[in-house]
Amino acid sequence: MIETLTIENLGVIAEARLDLSAGLTALTGETGAGKTMALTSLQLILGGKPDPGHVRTGAKAARVEGTFLVADDSPVLAAIDDAGGAYDVDGGQAEIVVARQVPASGRSSAFIGGRRVPTAVLRSIAQGLVTVHGQSDQLRLATAAQQRQALDAFGGEEVAKALRQWGEAYSAHAKAEGRLRSFDENARENARRRLAYQALAAKVEEVSPRPGEDEALKAEAFRLENTESRFAGLSEAAARLSGSDTVESSAMEGIDAAVRALEQTGDVVDLLARLRSVRDELGDIAATLASAAADTEADPARLAEIYARRQELSGLRRELGMGNDEAIEAAEEARAALADLEDPESTRKRLEEECEHARKSMEAAGEALHEARSQAAGRLGALVGDELTELALANARFEIAVTEGQPAAHGADVVEFLLASHSGAPLRPIGASASGGELSRVMLAVEVSLAERAAQSDHTFLFDEVDAGVGGRAAQAVGRRLAKLAEKHQVIVVTHLAQVAAHAATQAVVVKEEDESGAKTNVTIVTGNERLGELARMLSGNDTEAARTHAAELLGGGPDVAR
């Protein structure tokens, strides 16, 4: 509930503080006194859209601050924790400070628990604190989508669970249909792709290249093409090391002479051992070179094979426009793709079966959601019917029709609030069958029924002229019903009807005063004779004895209260 509301420099309100209590509070005042600004202040701390034009003339910014009290286990507190805000807890209640600052120019600021937050966060948290109902909300509930949402909210977890299951089934069916539709749309393209993949795989398989084959063949061809120069090189290297008829002095002979010379010194054992090791290694290298030279022979047939194979690989590269290793990889991918494209009839049959299974699951979920909504519609319709009797519409009949419609994300139901405003009248959509005053009371009945089921006891309901278009007994009925709702919740009603205000436990009057500095508006709690005078003004426009007597009767105290 809202404990205090402080307003600074908002419209005609220079500074005002309103202390609120539990139960029903009526906010009244003459037309033009500033009730709109008082209401705007409440809407601002609930995340409403700011208007710099509402900043008081000469002020740099308008500021509104509200203090809320909620139970220490309220889910709102978790949201405030997530936003980084702070609050005090004492005696099982948490105190939350919410503020909004609107500059004359620039962007507004929102604060929760001392922490600046985006307006969207403020709005989201505020929905758990206050529910606002006004004439615009009556129009809102006159739409099919909002009526469905109201029914779903009333249905609670039973409808919410069915709605979640529908959402999953609806999404699965949409995806299954999408896959089948995509398959059909791509059937011709898939046929072309299948032929292309087959041709690619066949061409690569025909040539059958091996990874790195062309480079290996290139190296082998180079060796065969240079057989004579290779033989000469190997032979000469072997001769230089081990000697031959064409070499006067070989490396081996020089090393042998060096070994013999060192053997005579007798004191360089390590060097002698190393030199002998070098001699042995050179001898082994010379033998290997001589063997390689002996094995080097021209092989024209093999060289011709290599030329033919390299030409075949080159042709594959030109035809496919890619290297041989790329062609091998592309062929593997083509064969994998063909596995999915080779049997389109079986693939389509499988997709059809998946789509049919998803459709049946969706229909089953739709039936469960329809049943849950229908049961909730019966319960809510009965509650609203009882409320209409309390609101001086005893002969009216209210029903909620839940009929079959087109599947959508919210289900396959069309929800419609129907009203027969008097005996013998046919049931028609409330927007088409109710007058302004009747619509106000019907919507009040709906909102009260929803509120008593869904909201916590510390929740606040703000009604902005919900009594528009009614008067007399109907207005008294609206007042009684708001007072009954206020037995469990804090209720604030902005009203111009004394019959409604008289049922309030607290009456706050918005008063506009003129002085040398201009017009100012104050918000004052009135009691006793002051309240009688305000009710008298609301009844007749003037504070007369007759009006006071009538006001006293509305308050339930009789003529003596007026004196």
TrEMBL record:
Limits of the RecF/RecN/SMC N-terminal domain: 1-515
Cellular component terms (Gene Ontology): bacterial nucleoid
Any single biological process term in GO: SOS response
UniProt keyword annotations, A-Z: ATP-binding, DNA damage, DNA repair, Nucleotide-binding
CDD domains: ABC_RecN
GO molecular function, one term: ATP binding
One family name in Pfam for this protein: SMC_N
Functional summary from the UniProt entry: May be involved in recombinational repair of damaged DNA.
Similarity remark: Belongs to the RecN family.
Protein's recorded name: DNA repair protein RecN
Record organism: Peptidiphaga gingivicola
